[in-house]
Design goal:
Layout: E1 9-15, H1 23-33, E2 38-44, H2 50-59, E3 64-67, E4 81-82, H3 84-89, E5 94-98, E6 101-105, H4 108-116, E7 126-130, H5 134-145, E8 150-155, H6 158-171, E9 175-180, E10 193-196, E11 221-224, H7 233-240, E12 244-246, H8 249-264, H9 270-281
Parallel strand pairs: 1-2, 1-3, 4-6, 7-8, 7-10, 8-9, 10-11, 11-12
Antiparallel strand pairs: 3-5, 5-6
The protein binds NADPH dihydro-nicotinamide-adenine-dinucleotide phosphate.
NADPH dihydro-nicotinamide-adenine-dinucleotide phosphate is lined by residues 108, 111, 131-136, 155-157, 160, 181, 198-200, 202, 225-227, 248, 251-252, 255.
């Protein structure tokens, strides 16, 4: 009589379009590395099918799933509870299913913070954050919760930046203000960390956010959320000026680590996951 089990733990992702989402390759590489009998299924879920997909995951006893665009806000009514940051951010990208209860979390900002902590302590730091979309919102809230001193949010549409600044001021101990993005943004001398949270640079190694390059001084930490290509032009210019560059792969990898900790209570090897992404995106300059 065989004692082999033929039932894998199920995790995955609901989004659309999703054919270019590499998370499955990253997480399944780590499941294999740790000999964990689990699968991560990348599912194309159209907006009208989200409710059925969530019900299906629950019915099939998935332990959790990521949800990406366009479901990060729409999924909330189907959940039983939200983590503190998901509640403040108003968006969920990671759902844990335990004893039939669904809890929503947001790992975008947490993944970024975990990556940032590899090079700097965010507590008390002064941050300049470029962009005011979903990634910027999650990062700003987590920075505030982590005790960052001050965040200046720079965006073409300053009203969007002010909405995020108010979230930080009202729901965290952090301070924040909005600034309109006109011409080239200069990084003030007292800023410790510059973060590009715009989509500029995605899939285009020559694109760069309009920042005065002579304000990128030695010692400044320059982080980019763009995972593809990992060495964006902003990071290359920053490195050439003596700044500490931080690429968007770390944010993606740490989101995977945090998600699986929530689902399986196991910590995956971040190095294995990063190498899986580098095989896909390339690691070079
Ligand atoms: P959104 O579409 O919500 O926001 C995009 C932001 O970029 C907006 O603030 C927009 O400004 C700004 N922007 C776009 N083009 C320009 C431009 N030419 N000049 C100035 N500002 C510009 O996107 P998300 O926040 O969801 O995602 C942003 C990026 O983050 C994506 O490229 C995504 O790949 C990356 N990301 C990476 C993750 C990772 O794990 N590494 C995780 C999540 C996202 P405006 O408001 O004025 O239009």
């Amino acid at each position: 009589m065989s004692d082999r089990r033929f039932l894998s733990i199920l995790t995955g992702s609901f989004s659309t379009p999703c054919a270019d989402n590499p998370t499955v390759a990253m997480i399944e590489a780590a499941y294999r590395h740790h000999d964990i009998d689990a699968r991560y299924i990348n599912c194309d879920v159209k907006p009208g099918n989200l409710a059925d997909a969530v019900r299906g995951a629950k019915a099939m006893e998935w332990v959790g799933f990521n949800c990406s665009l366009p479901h990060k806000v729409a999924v909330i009514p189907y959940l039983d509870a939200l983590s503190e940051s998901a509640r403040i951010i108003g968006a969920v990208n990671c759902v844990t299913i335990r004893d039939g209860r669904l809890t929503g979390d947001n790992t975008d900002g947490k993944g970024f913070l975990a990556s940032l902590r590899e090079v700097a302590d965010p507590r008390g730091a002064k941050v300049m954050l470029l962009g005011a979309g979903g990634a910027a919102r999650a990062i700003a809230v987590e920075l505030g919760l982590a005790g960052t001193g001050h965040v200046t949010i720079v965006n073409r549409d300053p009203a969007k930046a002010e909405t995020i600044a108010a979230l930080v001021r009202d729901h965290t101990r952090g301070d924040a203000r909005a600034m309109p993005w006109e011409g080239e943004a200069r990084v003030p001398e007292d800023v410790d960390i510059l973060i590009n949270a715009t989509s500029i640079g995605l899939g285009d190694r020559d694109a760069i956010p309009p920042v005065a390059l002579d304000s990128l001084r030695k010692g400044l930490i320059v982080a980019d959320v763009i995972p593809n290509p990992p060495k964006t032009r902003l990071l290359r210019e920053a490195k050439a000026r003596g700044c500490t560059p931080l690429d968007g792969l770390g944010m993606l990898v740490n989101q995977g680590v945090i998600g699986v900790e929530l689902w399986l209570e196991k910590t995956l090897d971040a190095g294995v996951m990063k190498r899986a992404l580098q095989d896909i995106f390339g690691a070079g300059d």
